[in-house]
Amino acid sequence: MPALFLAFLAVVAVTPAPLEQLLASRPADSLPGPLARYEASQHGDAAADAALLLGRLHYARGEYRQAAADFARATPRFDAARRAEARYWAGLAWLGAGEVGQAHAAFDEAARSGSQRRAGALLGVAECWESERRPEKALEALLTLLAADPGEAGPAALEREAALAAQLVRPELARRARERLAEEYPRSMEALRAALAPATRAVRPAARVAAPVAPVAPPPPALQAPLTVQIGAFREPTVARGLAERARRAGFSPVRVPVLEDAGAALYAVRVGVYATAGDARSAGERLGRALGVAWRVVPAP
Asked: Homologous superfamily of 223-300 in CATH?
């Protein structure tokens, strides 16, 4: 599992030499025991580093509650900047476990820190508010995020801002979000979707005073493009695979993690099912949202 191993090494800027040697000496899937023993034998930053890495390993394996416990041990041992990193990961783990309240608290703390995880944490806060059916609070979190440099969270935040603004009947705010998305992130998947949405609406015929004509029948289901439900897209493959495994455990299938290209970088999407009609896909998306507490959208199946 070399990709997973490299992801562990990237968690901290400087890995203590003994811990680096431990990671280099074993395959990733056999690390939990040695990492736990190493953590128990250390103090301060060294123990916190081990707990953080152990949490990342459990998270990648879909063991979200164990991961949250690992991140909780790491948090008090770090300084303020790295504490935010641990709290951000705790938020992801609690979200994976379906504990939205716990996730919300962790993301809130990480967002208040002013660390490099602030933007991602605010995006997590917005997702929690949406799961709690508070779209106005989710929009408020996104506006706070986007008032500063959103970094990699920008495309997703702007897409959600546009959707929530439309839902809350704030068309001017939705329009500005789509324009900013197109201007600042023109090659992102989110910008492409935003560009296609108005085009779809524009093909509707204008009302005319004329003799009625027979409605055009929709194409038979067999001729419609198959659809799938996308429940996330991530820069880190371990995060995507963790969500995919969570969907499988909840009884959904088939679950795929296709690799997409976004602004020249790999993006790992999580897609569930293949559906013949938009209605079937939307019904599946609603079930996924209730079961997993995730945002979803219907996209063409590959």
From this structure: Sporulation related repeat (3.30.70.1070)
